[in-house]
Amino acid sequence: PVGPPANTSTTGLTTALALDRSKRNTVVVRAIAGTWAGKPAAAVDLFEAALYLSTNPAQAPHLGPANAMNLAAYDIELYLPNLFSSPPADLPDTVAFKMRASDRAPYAYILTMPKTVASGQSVWDFNADPVRSGPDSVRDRYGKLVSALVDRGVTAAGLQALRMAVGRAMPQTFAETLLYGGGLDLADGVVNLQPGTVLQVAYEAYQYLGTASPYASYLNGYVGATVTTYETGSVVDANGRWLVGFDAFLAQIAQAMNIEAPVKAQGKQAGAGGITDAFFLNFRQPFVRIVYPSDFPGSGSSGTPFPSYNLALLAAPTLALLDAATADLRAHRDQIDTAAVLYFRGRAMLTPCVRVTVNDETRVVPLGTTVGNLLESIGQRPPVLGLSFAGIRFIRMAGTANTTGTARYAFGDDFPVRFDWDTNVAYSAAVDWLNLPVLAGDRLWTQG
After folding, report:
1. Between 124 and which of 47, 73, 92, 330 could a Cys-Cys bridge form, CB atoms 3.0 to 4.6 Å apart?
2. Rounded to an integer, what distance in angstroms lies between the CA atom of residue 90 and that of residue 110?
3. How many helices (H) and strands (E) does the chain have?
4. Using one digit for the tens of pLDDT, what is the confidence trace for 7-36?
5. What b-and-e string marks burial along 388-416, b requiring 16 or more CB atoms within 10 Å of the CB?
6. How far apart are alpha carbons 222 and 175 in whole angstroms?
7. How far is residue 249's CA from residue 243's CA, in Å, rounded to a whole number?
8. Is 201 within 8 Å of 348 (Cβ atoms)?
9. Are the beta carbons of 63 and 394 closer than 8 angstroms?
10. Partners of 364 in the β-ladder
């Protein structure tokens, strides 16, 4: 025991303890009435298993799980459902990610992220890189894991389950949070749309005032018009295929409709008028990606029918075909046959968004929004200083990330992110803990 027992006649008690991360602090409660003492309750840990933020300013800002007060690295195990259309002959091992068959029903597989590896990076190894890339890096080994799963016949739904589990439970930098958890690859200028994403489309209309005005070349062009949002979710079609679709109702009713595909010839393609055009047969696929162009037409242009100069949506039955189509767009090879292509007329801008909760108010915010941005919106972001925080609570939804192997899914048994465990770290003059990006379902509460 740390000291003598503390007595209270109320339901609460506060006592100061010196922080010693080498110890495990527990509390035991028992009822006392005069000379009579009840049976002691089971010991309860004072430490909360949660996601904790990094304190080393020489490393890229990151967070990771901890299950003990010393915040030591440990082997992370993720219990996964069946991922394959048929059982593979073997399971992948890419050093930082090791998969084996599960011994706990109903889970089929266990993905282990070891705390140490013989060479290269483990998921626990951090440096100054915002995204850990290069040979034998975390990104390299995760990419090899996905490739190995594809080679073994992973289903689209299985791959989505794996992506969500890794994106929410793996130790990762703030930038990697968007890459693994949000599908945003800034280096390639693409976003892989996942169920739960809200796609915002900002349409523009063309204003034409004729040529009589001496300012016509400045006044003619695109102007802002309607901003519309479309829900992205998983859809199971009449043939039992798992797909990524827009608008649950339209995704179902479109199966009974014949929606004409965009006309295309010699690389040119007709643009879409609205989300209805995303339901032609070849666009109903399990993998959907936004590809942002390196060059985008100016507001004074009349637009272009070449998809590679627009914000293009690609849909494909496999990741390999999706990647091939992306490479073609990047090279301005617009006659694409490996994937279905769609872009919206009118110089439309596409913004992937996520739904979060702030003080019990649901909001839709752009992907890339940070905890600090949420606090700014309610006038509560503190300055970037070495301050300790109080009165802030943040929860990250677990999704498919099951780390216990229990056969019961407890809604609400998610991942707290502890902003109040230590002094806030200013990694630079403008970046601190509050620059953590939010993911779909995140919840933030503040007092006051």
Report:
1. 73
2. 13
3. 8, 25
4. 888 877 777 777 677 777 788 888 888 888
5. ebeebebbbbbbbbbbeeeeeeeeeebbe
6. 33
7. 14
8. yes
9. no
10. 355
